[in-house]
Amino acid sequence: MNLRKPRRDSDILLSNIAHKELLFKFLVIGDYGVGKTALVRRYTEGRFTSNYKITIGADFAIKAVDWDRFTKINLQLWDVAGHERFGYMTRVYYKYAVAAALVFDISRIATFQSIKKWLSDLREKVTFPDGSEIPVVLLANKCDIPCPVVPSEQIAKFCKENNIGAWYVTSAKENTNIDVAMRYLVENVLKTKIDVDIRDSVRLRDNSKIRKRSECCKL
User: Where in the cell (predicted)?
Assistant: First the structure.
């Protein structure tokens, strides 16, 4: 005997209303050759290769994340070419971004020294509608290379002085801390007090399909 209660139309309607599908644009920025494309590929495609073409301008890739039983988040990761720093076009690439990953090569001190300028450029051009700063994470990339030249104490000090909430050593080759870093950004975007209209503007329509545009940078 089947004692299961039949599902009512109202139950189906409530289930559909409760389900949210969101689109968040994340920036991945830093100097040329720090491994941005490789990090993005590892995160969105689950693969690594050391052979990447130089990113020209900007590119993006999409990662769909089932955040909880009611929420699906589509992360659009924008990889901005290193030589685009401070150029006019960065304002176009940064538009609508709600979080950013700053990337440097832990084996090259010059790429770490450039992070301050990348951060200043970002904060000058991107804020939430209320003027507050978007969440930022710092990625000390290529931790698989022996003998890093940027000490952890220096990285931690930089983050504290510049109001960066978290930093991680990462490696696309060994898939180290990439998921953790992106989860940190998502959690902090969800915690921000974004105006309801802004949230609605990034919510996807039911059954909409996002077409993935190729490549993104990183190692």
Answer: Membrane
